Amino acid sequence: MSNSSDTATVIPLDNVDPALVEDLLDRAFEPERRQRTAYKVREGMEWLPALSFAVMDDKDMMVGSIQCWPVALTDDDGRAHPMIMVGPVAVLPEEQNRGYGQVLMSAAMSGIDERAPLPQVLIGDPEYYGRFWGFSNAQTQGWELPGPFEASRLLVRCDNPAVLPAKGTLGPWTR
């Protein structure tokens, strides 16, 4: 398969009809996706427009999207540590393995304010997200989620991992 990401155009996700985004997510992950633990982590939150994008192919068809969400890790003392949950990263099944996911992740990660970056968390493949963007599960082994998950797939990226609590529960950030 060719790498089609060279001709891709990234646009803000809030410029896309929400029904098109929902259709893309259903095609990429099945309609049952709403039962996944990641949905419980960000329940009731609105995605962050500055970090959420769509990717269009060379025919101006949306082939992928990424959303980022405000979440928090609440430690054992009840203190909320704000974070950004990355995902879902969705690409149409027939367009996968062409570089669109990397384009979307790079767009979202480049939007993080380097002057005061919040830790970013996601559920995904540690080798893939670690190799390209520095995500790791080394700091997340004591973290809990509001549903089932594979501990090895709970990943975080943080400039200073020492600020991360060793234990806590990830959920919506309600300030």
From TrEMBL:
CDD domains: NAT_SF. This is N-acetyltransferase. It comes from Novosphingobium decolorationis. Gene3D superfamilies: 3.40.630.30. Residues 8-156 form the N-acetyltransferase domain.
